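In this section we walk through a basic example: taking a raw amino acid sequence and producing a predicted 3D structure, encoded as discrete structure tokens. The instruction is simple. Fold the sequence below.
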Amino acid sequence: MEDVGREGAGPGGGAAGGRSRAPHHSSNNNGKTSAKLMEYFKRKTHFTKDEIESLCRVYRKLVATSHAHNSGAAAHSGNPAAAVLPSPNSAVVTELLHNTFDMVTEEVLMDRIFCAFDRCNDGVIRMDEWVCGLSVFIKGDADERTAFCFRVYDLNSDGYISREEMFHLLRNCLVKQPQDDDPDEGVKDLVELALKKLDYDKDGKVSFKDFQSAVKDEPLLLEAFGQCLPSEGACQTFLSTLRS
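The resulting token sequence is shown next.
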């Protein structure tokens, strides 16, 4: 899995790793993933051959369900590898995160998780983004998971988590039913506390290098601004369904 680890080791690594293109043909006449695409996924992910085959089947079902929910989704070519999942607010994607992976999190994080999968930044999830993204999401090593979380929290994708982004993330997670006259003051205090923990070079914002160093020193900081990875139990349950 050396390719995945190396490509996911920076803020641009994200879910799907590098942007080398997947082979165009995704299945043969029997509906099985083509040998060329299978080899690509085996090289780029932590999944076994059987798991990859199952994930491709799940993807095709999700595409069909998405199109049923959203008749306005962009049509894809006759090539199955070009099939895509539509918008980040799709009921199908939300259901997957909520129900399959027990992701009880805020809408802003849901959208950012989708963006972390969507390495082409075109508002859809292609089959290679789906399989390679889930490799990090479910089986990623420490570097891959750190890069994934950083990409989620870097709301404007400028390579830094700013005070404003921290405030937005923490406020959405924590301020539900304000009891104080100014609940935002408490959030501001948490932002300053987070900066003390994460901002290693003391420049008032958190770079990927800062975040990586902080997480290595204190692993609990990996999801400091909200849940963006599934629990171990949810991952094992999902993997067991792929193998059954």
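Looking at the output, two observations stand out. Residues 66 and 90 are 7 Å apart (CA to CA). The chain has a mean pLDDT of 80. In the next section we compare this with other chains.
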